[in-house]
């Protein structure tokens, strides 16, 4: 574990402090640790572990820089996972101080927790001209597709298989995190304008009939169950509708 050892009260103490306790045993160790905690030289965590305050603050200051480094390596990568961060910050760091650092940095507004990882408040990386051009094509394609969800493969084929399909997928996910495109649970996408129109149609039908069923998809969306279910499930996921058996009703 990074910079500390297990002693005394089943906790951890910085190697630099071991000289203070190396001749102590039992109760004396506990008393020494408690004295260091009281003086602010050690931090006590809920699991009973202790950690050097100076080392904790040094790692905490360095943590956002680690995230920025990870994200700069891949401009389309919107979050750094906890494992990536820990691997570069201090691979053997105990979970208690590591998770506490992350929580404190989020509460201080320096980090944003998102989708199982973290980003830096206000951080962005400029895309290359090639990717910017592809982004514009994807947004145009989303608008042209209207109510019909599309995938990376659909776009790739529609544009003569010229672009790299993996890059297309990454850009679609990037646009989703930027809230410029809607991602359904089957990794198909819709433009936000189309989704607003879908919500309007769904609202009108439910107000008219009291509820909406899968059988209504053709009338409302223009397609059947296979394409329609992920769209309706998305509306459930954002709290627009609620499923009751085979029907859906408005939540508000």
Number of strands: 12
Straight-line N-to-C gap: 51 Å
**Into which percent range does the helicity of residues fall?**
40-55%
Quaternary class: single chain
Class inferred from helices and paired strands:
alpha+beta
H/E series, N to C? EEHHEEHEHHEEHHHEEHEHHEE
CATH T-level fold name of the largest domain: Arc Repressor Mutant, subunit A
Radius of gyration: 26 Å
Architecture overview:
A three-stranded antiparallel β-sheet has the order 5-7-6. The longest helix is centred in the first third of the chain and has 21 residues, at 53-73. Helix 7 (152-158) crosses helix 8. The protein has 252 residues and is an alpha+beta fold. The protein has eleven helices and twelve strands. The chain has helices spanning 18-21, 26-39, 53-73, 82-89, 95-107, 129-145, 152-158, 165-177, 192-209, 217-221, 225-237, and strands at 4-7, 11-14, 42-44, 50-52, 80-81, 111-114, 117-120, 182-183, 189-190, 212-213, 241-244, 247-250. It starts with a strand and ends with a strand. It folds into three domains: 15-44, no CATH class; 53-120, Winged helix-like DNA-binding domain superfamily/Winged helix DNA-binding domain (Arc Repressor Mutant, subunit A); 129-250, Orthogonal Bundle (Arc Repressor Mutant, subunit A).
């Amino acid at each position: 574990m990074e910079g500390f050892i297990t002693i005394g009260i089943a906790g951890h103490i910085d190697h630099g402090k071991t000289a203070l306790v190396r001749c102590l045993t039992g109760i004396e160790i506990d008393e020494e640790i408690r004295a260091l905690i009281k003086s602010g030289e050690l931090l006590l965590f809920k699991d009973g572990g202790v950690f050097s305050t100076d080392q904790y603050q040094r790692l905490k200051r360095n943590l956002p820089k680690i995230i920025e480094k990870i994200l700069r390596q891949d401009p389309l990568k919107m979050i750094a996972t906890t494992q990536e961060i820990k691997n570069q910050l201090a691979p053997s760091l105990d979970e208690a101080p590591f998770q506490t650092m992350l929580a404190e940095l989020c509460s201080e507004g320096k980090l944003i927790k998102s989708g199982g990882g973290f980003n830096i408040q206000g951080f962005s990386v400029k895309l290359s001209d090639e990717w910017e051009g592809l982004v514009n094509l994807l947004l145009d394609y989303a608008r042209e597709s209207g109510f019909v969800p599309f995938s990376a493969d659909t776009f790739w084929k529609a544009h003569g298989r010229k672009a790299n399909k993996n890059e297309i997928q990454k850009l679609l996910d990037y646009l989703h995190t930027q809230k410029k495109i809607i991602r359904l649970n089957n990794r198909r996408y819709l433009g936000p304008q189309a989704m607003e129109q879908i919500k309007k149609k769904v609202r009108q039908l439910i107000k008219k009939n009291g509820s909406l069923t899968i059988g209504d998809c053709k009338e409302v969306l223009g397609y059947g169950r296979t394409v329609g279910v992920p769209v309706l499930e998305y509306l459930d996921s954002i709290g627009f509708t609620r499923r009751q058996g085979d029907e859906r009703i408005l939540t508000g």
